[in-house]
Design a protein that fits this description.
The protein is mainly beta. It has one domain: SH3 type barrels (Roll), CATH 2.30.30. It is built from one helix and five strands; from the N terminus they run ββββαβ. It has a five-stranded antiparallel β-sheet. The N and C termini lie far apart (32 Å).
Length: 59
């Protein structure tokens, strides 16, 4: 599955809105996406494209 998400984009986790907005720091060929969320919480999300949605951060 090809993810339409790329390093540098801002995202929100569909089921974990309390994590806030995150920035993608890496996308691997298997679809795992590494994101650093507000408060410096870094997570790796397997099949990340299914769980993340692109957002535009507030100005």
């Amino acid at each position: 599955m090809k993810a339409n998400l790329y390093a540098g984009e801002n995202v929100r986790h569909k089921a974990k809105a309390d994590w806030g907005i995150g920035k993608i720091i890496a996308v691997d060929t298997c679809g795992t996406i590494k994101v650093i969320f507000e408060g410096k919480k870094q997570v790796s999300i397997a099949q990340g494209a299914k769980h993340l949605v692109k957002v535009t951060p507030p100005a």
